[in-house]
């Protein structure tokens, strides 16, 4: 079972690395998606992703690309950790010997079990996110 713990830790580190590398791209994407529409004859705020990144860094500094990173870091790292740990549990349940080579079906089964574990972690946050996305100002929830 120490393999499960090592995989859990590796998943957490991997999830953190994913967020650290990918967050600047997400920041640029969100800034482009939310920029105001230009009036006829006006230039858009950004002409593309590279322009957005350059202007953001020039105006606000390099670390502006990492604004809002705490929430994904807190959410994704445990998600990856649970997935990696769940995969290790799935393998452990199917192996008769730790050095046994896994078949394709056994690996698929381990991944499916990891998906179930991951869903337990992910669904509550997705539910809240969906409720916030459809929420309109001034209306009360009926459910």
UniProtKB/TrEMBL annotation:
Where is the protein found, in the record's own terms? Answer: Mitochondrion membrane
Return any one Pfam family short name: Mito_carr
| Bilayer-crossing regions | 64-84, 104-123
- How does the record say this protein sits in the membrane? Multi-pass membrane protein
Named from the GO MF annotations, one term is:
ATP:ADP antiporter activity
| InterPro entries per UniProt | ADT_euk_type, MCP_dom_sf, MCP_transmembrane, Mitochondrial_Carrier
First and last residues of every Solcar repeat: 2-93
- Please verify whether the record's keywords include Thylakoid: no
Top-rank lineage group of the source organism: Eukaryota
Q: Does the keyword tRNA processing apply?
A: no
Give the keywords, sorted.
Answer: Membrane, Mitochondrion, Repeat, Transmembrane, Transmembrane helix, Transport
* Record GO cellular component, one term: mitochondrial inner membrane
Any one GO BP annotation for this protein:
mitochondrial ATP transmembrane transport
Q: Which family does it belong to?
A: Belongs to the mitochondrial carrier (TC 2.A.29) family.
The protein depicted here goes by the name Mitochondrial carnitine/acylcarnitine carrier protein
> What is the native source organism of this protein?
Caenorhabditis japonica
Read off the lineage from the record: Eukaryota, Metazoa, Ecdysozoa, Nematoda, Chromadorea
